[in-house]
Specification:
The complex is a heterodimer of chains A (428) and B (521). Chain A has 428 residues and is of the alpha/beta class. Chain A has a domain of 154 residues: Rossmann fold. Chain A is 41% helix and 10% strand. In chain A, strands 1-3-2-4-5 form a five-stranded parallel beta sheet, with helices on both faces. Chain A has a four-stranded parallel beta sheet with strand order 9-6-10-11, sandwiched between helices. A two-stranded antiparallel ribbon of chain A has the order 7-8. In chain A, a hairpin with a 3-residue loop joins strand 7 and strand 8. In chain A, helix 3 packs across helix 6, helix 9 crosses helix 18 and helix 16 packs across helix 17. The model of chain A has no long low-confidence stretch (mean pLDDT 97). In chain B, 37% of the residues lie in helices and 17% in strands. In chain B, the strands form six sheets. In chain B, strands 5-6-10-8-9 form a five-stranded antiparallel beta sheet. Chain B has a four-stranded mixed beta sheet with strand order 1-2-4-3, with helices on one face. Chain B is globular and about 70 Å long. Chain B has three domains: 93 residues, Uridine Diphospho-n-acetylenolpyruvylglucosamine Reductase, domain 2, CATH 3.30.43.10; 128 residues, 2-Layer Sandwich (Uridine Diphospho-n-acetylenolpyruvylglucosamine Reductase, domain 3); 224 residues, 3-Layer(aba) Sandwich (Vanillyl-alcohol Oxidase, Chain A, domain 3). By secondary structure, chain B is α+β, with helices and mostly antiparallel strands. The chains are: A alpha/beta (428), B alpha+beta (521). Chains A and B meet through helix 3, helix 4 and strand 8 of A and helix 2, helix 4, helix 10 and helix 14 of B.
């Protein structure tokens, strides 16, 4: 299996308990107001709710010194968006796998039969309907009606497969963005197809919640389908899907005959090549929110499997050398490049961006099972956007957009929310 | 023993149900404390509950409940180290994380008023916006400003120009172990926060003395600290990828260089002269191992160490930083530095003159954000020894004693071979004060290594006593409540005064004495 708690004991027991996981990398801190990086510790305050606290509990579970799995333990483990900010901050100074320790703790608990009932509902929806939204599988392709996009579930091949993802397929407020994406790709002359009602979830939520058997089933099935369809590229508009396809799918050991791209990458490419021309002005001051799974969590993960040797007395040398994922290799520039190229738009940056970006709050099943926490986290980001006098927050993930819109509706705020794709469509 | 329901409910009525927990998972996460732990990572004793007060009033109410029900309490801020946990059964832990506001930055009078969970980096970034800067302790900018000012040591390498935390302390709001609120310095005379010693009561010596009471004398809920002139930009913008963030633009009139000397004694002479000349922003004796671990890790570090290059270049070296207010002052400081180096045989180490090192060093100096790299990353376990503050000469003697002592433990292979002389020596207040910490790295999960580290620490403490090298700073776990009892008789029986202070201020012994002193012999 991918997630074995014992594989991370070496990391968990070497946490220095310095609390650096609770802050952005210290050199990047810019103000007191936006000096937190982890929504979970910021909201719940007990040390347990930090990356370090969760590593301690993972270690305690691995060592068998935590007898009871209490409701509070499940809260600690799951009231976390798995945004990976703790992991990036820790790796500024250390090389510990904080995020994968959290994933593995969840998988360990699931293997013991411990999970939240809300999560089981998500997983049951996955098992029954191939999506996380408790919606009928048969309706999955409705969003694309009238687009005249090749349905590869009926056979045939395409150079590029568009994968919409569960939320775009079923959220009526958001599916227009998937339609825009397809329209833009077709307009640029891309040989495009999609899996129609046979498209299934990417499995990212199952993975993040610790249901790794379910994840593997969906991931392998997707890889097989896309290989069979002869795709050279799989393009998705869902940042969560992109993150899992880039970071985790390759660990399954199946040949992936295709390249995975996020919609912002291919649009940036098409704009640079002149196949899409942004000519209409959109006069607005906007800020860009980095989705965690498009950014720091999309680096291909290379688990360390090796031996620890002692040299110089007690210096611990890991052989082979560990690949350290610091979040720097995420997709940060393409969405910004696109926004900058739109006439009339002024892009201003918030304080917490790129590998130390603040999460929107929706990730890892939090939006579906603990909406109060998701909305609180989003409201913090909205305040940050307001602090730079942005009129709109632009993002590139349906979960971020959904959560921001809900938080804004709840607060009565006037900030606008856009997906990069929407702006490109408007600017053509 | 668990808290009686009635007592738990009393605490809950003070902080609210969201801010108290006796859940085993929550408590277990707090018990993870590798630094200062004698074995492994877990504390032996669990608190009965963790409480998170949000105000002075809530802390007062908690202290009163504790006194009424004879429950021991202990407060922590960022909580790095086992000394943050109660060392007795049946106690409650106060996590002050919700008391996290910068209440004021008084630009004109150059001070800030902070609550316990404001960390140095939060204060620095806000202070810089107003042309001010703050002292950051050597442990890093991830630590509490208030904790080092009121309760625990407080040394840092910018102390050359900005003093140390205990000295920078101004007005204080202090919840005594009994729950009474005491206001110190000008605050005690309703005259604001500007002074720690009057008008109003000055109790700096009783409250913290040299090293603080480590949470054994109540809870400090607010304090004011001095700020210092900052001549750099209001925001320090970074470039490059982690972990090598560097300043986007170099700072004017700022220069950091490593200097090496033919001998420790010549290094000491240079330190004295630089202090007397009243120049410099930051000084820290840096060793080959410390610098090497800042630069690299894994096999690259081993190769670097085994090449002997660092040892050759930085055998007796310090990092000295000039940060001037004008070009003329910058030139002046450079000339003085050059003269001191000439008189003492010091030379610029070629390693510090590369663009990469200049850039990297500037960030490390200004942000003090990479201590974990050099101390915890290589072997997991880390501890420190010696550390009494006195003169440069004593600091040099601490280096010599520590390096000599470490040799046999390195030969046994129980601590990491860092050359033995892996120490941080700092100067404060233009060289009037100095101290040395001798560092050790070891594997706290390896029984033999952990035992070896303990033996070294015990022997280093004994050496401090026998050779008159002062009371060590971070030896709570090794000598615990007995530390002052051991060192007191060698230092005018100061321990009897501490016991009396503890008795008077904490008649019910309600505030955990473990890391401070027991009222009884």
């Amino acid at each position: 299996m991918l997630l074995e708690l014992n594989d991370y004991v070496g990391d968990m027991k070497r946490c220095a308990r310095c609390s650096i996981c609770k802050w952005p990398p210290l050199a990047q801190m810019k103000s007191w107001r936006f000096s937190q990086n982890c929504p979970s510790i910021a909201r719940y305050n007990f040390h347990s709710y930090s990356g370090g606290g969760r590593m301690a509990l993972g270690l305690a579970l691995a060592e068998g010194i935590l007898d009871d799995v209490t409701d509070e333990l499940l809260n600690i483990v799951y009231r976390c968006t798995a945004c990976g900010a703790c992991d990036s901050s820790c790796k500024y100074n250390s090389e510990l796998e904080v995020l994968w320790s959290i994933y593995s703790t969840r998988a360990h608990l699931v293997s013991m039969g411990n999970f939240l009932p809300e999560h089981l509902m998500i997983i049951e929806s996955l098992r029954k309907e191939d999506n996380t939204m408790a919606q009928p599988k048969a309706d999955r392709a409705k969003w694309a009606e009238g687009l005249n996009i090749r349905d590869l579930s009926q056979g045939g091949q395409a150079e590029v497969i568009y994968h919409a993802g569960c939320l775009y397929c079923y959220d009526p407020d958001l599916s227009s963005i998937a339609r825009d994406a397809v329209t833009l790709l077709k307009q640029a002359g891309i040989d495009l197809g999609f899996m129609g009602s046979n498209e299934t979830c990417c499995g990212s939520m199952a993975f993040q919640l610790g249901f790794q058997g379910d994840f593997i089933k969906f991931a392998e099935s997707n890889i097989d389908d896309w290989n069979a369809a002869g795709a050279k590229r799989v393009v998705t508009s869902c940042a969560c899907g992109f993150g899992i396809m880039k970071a985790v799918y390759p660990l399954l050991g199946k040949e992936m005959k295709f390249e995975v791209l996020h919609i912002t990458q291919i649009l940036d490419e098409l704009i640079r090549e002149g196949k899409l021309q942004l000519s209409k002005s959109i006069p607005a001051r906007v800020t860009y929110h980095d989705p965690c799974n498009l950014g720091r969590n999309s680096e291909q993960y290379v688990p360390w499997r090796g031996v620890e040797k002692k040299l110089l007395g007690q210096f611990i040398l890991r052989e082979p050398e560990k690949v350290v994922h610091r979040g720097w290799e995420g997709v940060y520039e393409p969405p910004r490049d696109i926004i900058r190229r739109i006439p009339g738009i002024e892009l201003v940056e918030m304080e917490r961006i790129r590998e130390y970006s603040w999460c929107c709050g929706a990730g890892s099943g939090v939006k579906l099972s603990m909406d109060d926490f998701a909305l609180w986290t989003a409201s913090e980001r909205i305040k940050e956007a307001e602090s730079v006098a942005a009129e709109a927050i632009v993002t590139a993930c349906p979960w971020c957009e959904r959560n921001f819109k809900d938080a804004i509706a709840q607060s009565g705020n006037h900030l606008m929310v856009y997906d990069v794709v929407e702006l490109v469509k408007q600017a053509l | 023993m668990s808290l009686a329901t009635k007592v738990y409910k009393s605490f809950e009525s003070v902080v609210g149900p969201e801010n108290i927990s006796g859940d085993p998972a929550v408590l277990r996460s707090y018990m993870y404390q590798p630094f200062g732990n004698n074995k492994g990572v877990w504390a032996d004793i669990s608190p009965e509950a963790v409480l998170m007060p949000a105000s002075t009033e809530e802390v007062v109410a908690i202290a009163k409940i504790c006194n009424r029900h004879h429950i021991v309490f202990k407060a922590m801020s960022t909580g790095w180290g086992i000394h943050n946990l109660p060392g007795v059964e049946g106690a409650v832990l106060l996590d002050l994380r919700r008391m996290n506001r910068i209440l004021e930055i008084d630009e004109k009078n150059m001070f800030a008023v902070v609550e316990p969970h404001v960390i140095c980096m939060q204060l620095q970034v806000e202070a810089m916006k107003k042309g001010l800067n703050c002292h950051i302790i050597g442990a890093g900018s991830n630590t509490s400003v208030l904790a080092s000012a009121t309760s625990v040591v407080g040394y840092g390498p910018d102390g050359l120009s900005m003093g140390y935390s205990g000295r920078n302390l101004l007005g204080v709001e202090w919840v005594l172990p009994t729950g009474e609120v005491l206001k110190l310095g000008s605050l005690g005379a309703d005259a604001g926060w500007f002074c720690g010693d009057g008008p109003g009561p000055s109790m700096r010596g009783i409250m913290r003395g040299w090293e603080g009471a480590w949470g054994g004398l109540g809870v400090f809920t607010k304090c004011a600290v001095k700020l210092f002139h900052w001549n750099g930009p209001s925001e320090l913008e970074m470039k490059n990828a982690p972990p090598n963030y560097v300043l986007k633009e170099p700072i004017k009139f700022f220069r950091a260089s490593l200097f090496s000397f033919p001998s420790l004694d010549q290094l000491a002479e240079a330190a004295y002269k630089l202090g007397e000349s009243e120049i410099g922003y930051f000084i820290c004796r840096l060793t080959p191992a410390f610098v090497g671990l800042q630069m690299t890790s894994g096999k690259n570090y081993v190769d670097l160490w085994q090449s002997g290059m660092m040892q050759q270049m930085l055998k007796y070296a310090f990092l000295f930083v000039i940060f001037a207010n004008s070009e003329r002052e910058f030139d002046y400081q450079q000339k003085v530095l050059a003269q001191v180096l000439e008189e003492t045989g010091g030379q610029v180490s070629p390693i510090s003159e590369t663009k990469e090192m200049q850039e990297q060093t500037a960030i490390t100096v200004l942000k003090v954000d990479a201590v974990v790299r050099s101390c915890f990353r290589s072997a997991g376990g880390f501890n420190t020894s010696f550390g009494a503050m006195d003169t440069v000469d004593l600091a040099i003697n601490q280096i010599k004693a520590g390096a000599g002592l470490k040799e046999k433990y390195i030969k046994r292979g129980v601590i990491m071979d860092d050359g033995g002389d892996n120490s941080a020596t700092l100067l404060f207040e233009q060289g009037h004060l100095a101290y040395t910490e001798v560092l050790i790295m070891y594997d706290h999960h390896d029984g033999e290594s952990a035992q070896g580290a303990l033996e070294y620490l015990a022997e280093s403490n004994e050496t401090c006593l026998k050779q008159g090298l002062g009371s060590p700073i971070f030896q709570i776990s090794q000598v615990g409540t007995g530390k002052h009892g051991v060192f007191g008789p060698a230092c005018f029986n100061y321990d009897t005064w501490l016991r009396e202070i503890k008795k008077q201020l904490d008649p019910n012994n309600t505030c955990d004495p473990t890391a401070y002193i027991s009222p009884d012999e």
